[in-house]
Design a protein that fits this description.
The protein has eight helices and eleven strands. By secondary structure, it is of the alpha/beta class. A nine-stranded mixed sheet has the order 1-5-2-6-11-10-7-8-9, sandwiched between helices.
């Protein structure tokens, strides 16, 4: 099936099926126009897909071989460089088109700057938004721009969706005050553990949209990301929480955002690819 606003690019290194037959559908959104520090997120979807060449399809933890699963990859969104609103419009239309073609498939978005979480959230209309991130992203504007990567959680909040944020270690006072006003749950990276994650997430309404900004991880794992922050979480701290979430909650969609870089084999892309494989494996086994 062809999608109006997408184009074919490097494919994930797995056997792939048509969208209509898939249980998982991958879409890249290579948008990088509001990144405020290190550019390169436009290459994230390609770098993640290329990094999957390095990975075994069999996931030891779940006794699942991704090569046996029904996975589709519809390529990348044909973004409009420098125009977040038109790109968002195209992203919404594409995710809606995807859900019309296969309502039962789980969309998995690869980014791309974090602003591009908005199109799948808007199209899928979840009740809750769970995000792992170094930053609160609750600014109303950043550098006089409302449609900016630093404002994504604020834009999601304005849709009336409940929000919980984990791994946070950066923000401004106004964001903290907004979170308090809107009863947005967030856990600092220093205070994070899976028990606190479960305590918050267990009461969130379903379905849940899951967003993972790659900068949530320890900086040694993700040096190539738009706004890197020291003091992040370990891979297994995040995986343990995701296993609980996917086992116990209905998931509307997933994204992995802010993978950047300019070279194949980038450490950040390898982390993103491993996370992608684990998410698909745990959803197949636990979900």
């Amino acid at each position: 099936m062809e999608f109006f606003y997408t184009y074919e690019t490097i494919k994930t290194a797995l056997p792939l099926v048509d969208v209509e037959k898939a249980d998982f559908v991958i879409l890249g959104i290579p948008f990088d126009s509001t990144t405020s520090y290190k550019p390169g997120a436009r290459f994230g979807p390609t770098l993640i897909r290329q990094a999957t060449i390095n990975l075994e399809s069999y996931i030891l933890d779940y006794d699942v071989d991704l090569a046996d699963l029904k996975i589709a990859d519809i390529g990348d969104l044909d973004i409009v460089a420098g125009n977040p609103l038109e790109t968002i419009k195209r992203g919404i239309a594409t995710v809606e088109e995807l859900k019309e073609a296969n309502p039962n498939a789980l969309p998995i978005i690869l980014g791309g700057e974090h602003l591009m979480t908005y199109p799948p959230v808007k199209a899928l209309n979840p009740k809750s938004y769970v995000v792992f991130d170094a930053h609160l992203d609750l600014r109303d504007t950043y550098q006089e721009e409302k449609w900016d990567h630093a404002c994504i959680a604020r834009r999601v909040s304005e849709l009336g969706i409940e929000i919980a944020e984990f791994g946070i270690r950066s923000g401004i006072k106004e964001e903290v005050e907004y979170a308090k006003e809107k009863k947005i749950h967030w856990i600092h990276a220093r205070d994070y553990n899976v028990g606190k994650f479960i305590e918050i997430v267990k009461d969130l309404p379903e379905p849940i949209y899951l967003s993972i900004d790659i900068d949530v991880f320890d900086l040694s794992m993700v040096p190539s990301t738009g706004t890197p922050e020291a003091g992040g979480l370990s891979f297994w701290e995040v995986i343990e929480a995701l296993e609980w979430l996917i086992k116990n909650k209905k998931i509307a969609g997933i994204d992995i955002m802010e993978v950047a870089g300019t070279e194949l084999g980038d450490i950040t892309a390898l982390t993103g690819a491993k996370l992608l494989f684990y998410l698909i494996g745990m959803k197949a086994k636990l979900g």
